[in-house]
Structure formats: C-alpha cells, structure tokens
Amino acid sequence: MKSVFVILLILILGGCQKESPTQTEQRSAQLGDSFELKPGEAIMITGTPVSFRFDSVLFDGRCPEGVLCFWEGNAAIIISFPTEQDTVMTMDPHKIYKNDYEVTLQKLSPYPKSNQKIPKDAYVAQLSVLKHS
C-alpha cells in the first residue's frame, strides 16, 4: 500500500510544474507615435509588418548625474525582431533601419546617478517607428 501511495505522490508531483513567468502581452502603436517599452515587452506597429521586443539593456555607460565627464557616454539596448538575430541599438547613433522603416531610440530611463546601480528590469526605452523614404 505504501508503494502505491509513493508512486501516486511521484506522479502527482511530477505533473506539477513551476509556473513560467507570463509573457507580457504584445502591445500596438501607430506609425510615428512615441511609445515606451520595459525589458521583455513587445510592440507591433499597426498597419505595418514591424514588430519587435525590447529584450534587455546591453550596457549603460552614460555619464552619471553629478559627475564631470570628458564624454557623455553611451548606452545600448537589445531588441529582437521576429525571425532575425538580436539587434543592438545605441543612444548614439540612435536609429536603425529595418526594410523600409526607421526605428529610433529616443530616450532610456532612468538616467544614471553617481554610485547608484540601476536594476536591469528598471529601465524603460522610449522609441518610435517611421516609414523610411
């Protein structure tokens, strides 16, 4: 009887899985509109074949507030388009071109402060997509 109970318990626990984090629902925006994405969020540009996901911040080397720097620095994010390799976008230059469309990284928040580490999931990228002529 004990062995039947143990087997049943193993089967029940084996069927349980840790819930995977829910994917953020893909949002949509209009061509030319400015929109914000957090890491892991995706966007589809209405009426176009353009859609992508803001995967993560690759690096943030911008000169922190309150610090005197020789160079303002740069930051880079990784975005992914369906069926393509990940794409790196930087603050300078802040545009990439995909087919007939121009994707612009307008802003990356929060801006770094001296001696304060920004958690990777706290970033917000402000972007826009225009038709490139």
Overview of the molecule:
It is a single chain. The chain is mainly β and about 130 residues long. The protein has one domain (about 20-130). Helices cover about 10% and strands about 40% of the residues. The chain contains 1 helix and 9 strands. It has one helix at about 1-15; strands at about 25-30, 35, 40-45, 50-60, 75-80, 85-90, 95-100, 100-110, 125-130. The strands form 2 sheets. The chain has a 5-stranded mixed beta sheet with strand order 1-3-4-5-6, with no helix packed on it. Strand 5 (about 75-80) and strand 6 (about 85-90) form a beta hairpin. It starts with a helix and ends with a strand.
Q: Which radius of gyration do the C-alpha atoms yield?
A: 21 Å
Beta-strand percent range: 35-45%
> What's the arrangement of strands in the largest beta sheet?
1-3-4-5-6
Helix content: 10-25%
Distance between the termini: 75 Å
What is the overall silhouette?
Answer: elongated
- The residue-averaged pLDDT reads 84
Quick synopsis:
The chain has 133 residues and is mainly β.
Helices and strands, with pairings:
Layout: H1 2-15, E1 27-29, E2 34-37, E3 42-45, E4 51-60, E5 75-80, E6 87-90, E7 95-98, E8 101-109, E9 124-131
Parallel strand pairs: 1-3
Antiparallel strand pairs: 2-9, 3-4, 4-5, 5-6, 7-8, 8-9
Provide key terms for this protein.
single chain; 133 residues; mainly beta; five-stranded mixed β-sheet; four-stranded antiparallel β-sheet; 1 helix; 9 strands; elongated
